[in-house]
Design a protein that fits this description.
The chain has 235 residues and is an alpha+beta fold. 26% of the residues lie in helices and 22% in strands. It contains three helices and nine strands; from the N terminus they run ββαβββββαββα. The strands form three sheets. The chain has a five-stranded mixed beta sheet with strand order 2-1-7-4-3, with no helix packed on it. A two-stranded antiparallel sheet has the order 5-6. It starts with a strand and ends with a helix.
Length: 235
Amino acid sequence: MKLNIANPATGQQKTVEVDEERRYRIFYDKKISQEVEADSLGDEWKGYVLRVTGGNDKQGFPMKQGVLLPHRVRLLLADGHSCYRPRRDGERRRKSVRGCIVGPDIAVLSLIIVKQGDNELPGLTDNVLPKRLGPKRATKIRRFFNLSKDDDVRKYVIRREVKSKKKENAKPYTKAPKIQRLVTPIRLQRRRHLRALNRRRIDRIKEQKAEYDTLVQKRVAEKKAKVAATKASHK
């Protein structure tokens, strides 16, 4: 069985092939998102805790979260479901997916390191890879750098250096994402303007309704007077 192990703390990833069944038997009957102690994989894994995140069986069918079976099933999948990408709007299709319980028919198992043990693992814990793309939303940038509301978020955007592929001797330049949901003075001004327009529209509608009600009352009074005059002329 191949174990595709990722370490979110360092950003590293490694595929380990385990041939002896007694070593990877600890994953049997475990569901996706369950945590497993990895001591039986070897002495270097002592103290490590791994979480199951997915996998594929020997025919390449992916494991699907929520299907509590240790074998393949055919499900009617639609837009928004995992293991399926619709080609047209409203399209549904019956597809074969593997249940989320690990069994001996799994060829590749995806895992992440939840707790690090005593020993360093080369390719997983020995090096910290820099984060290529940082958060884009303003609140997520604040949470990432532990900022307060007074701090300027624009100064903390993660920029990455890019070199031109067309020109060899071109100067490298930096790229940064456009911050989403950033509250700026222009945004506040636009919000005030929209609220003022809304208030004006409501006031105009109230005035028009008052004018209409006055006109209706006037017409009703004229009609009553006309009816009364007609009755008086017949007497």
